[in-house]
Specification:
Low-confidence stretches: none
CATH class of the largest domain: Mainly Alpha
Number of strands: 0
Number of domains: 2
Strand content: under 5%
Number of helices: 12
Shape: globular
Largest sheet: none
Distance between the termini: 32 Å
Mean pLDDT: 94
CATH architecture of the largest domain: Orthogonal Bundle
Structural class: mainly alpha
Helix content: 55-70%
Oligomer: single chain
Length: 190
Amino acid sequence: MDGPHQHLAQDPRLGPVVEAHGPLSLEPAADPFRRLIVSIVRQQVSMESAAAIRERLFDAVEITPAGIQAADDAVLQEAGLSAAKTEYIHAVAAYFAETDVQAFHRMDDEAVLEELTEIRGIGPWTAKMFLLFGLARPDVFPVEDLGIRKGMRALYDRDLDRAAMSEEAERWRPYRSYAARYIWRGYEAD
């Protein structure tokens, strides 16, 4: 089978974006827990706001399960987390204090999604971001992401609902994670 770039370059809509941006890679995060915390910080805020909150949070607290469990709520909220997100990262820290993050590498995508979405504050978007950026899984399509939805609408030059986007993305299997990265790149470049 062709690699992701060759496969996606053959697509009539996505191919020009692939050609414009060249080969992209997926690398697992050095610290998947930290990457999951970043995804929680990014929930429903602009990338600029998320970057500022992330910087303050990472300066204020050791980003480990123990470090977050030990952090006072006031410190987390001073870094810019809402009360809800403070609760969420505490729930994630408690979970990961008891769970070996390496176990996720041995699980299939559906099992990871199921496991993570049982944690308060982690929904499908956050779990898919973990699969894509934490574990570098090659076939994840995060239709829940606003950038993906805007990019798909631009790519298809029409309004598509999430079901139609997911259906269109089926032809990019088994490389939908790479397709998502190209869609983000194409959308950001416009």
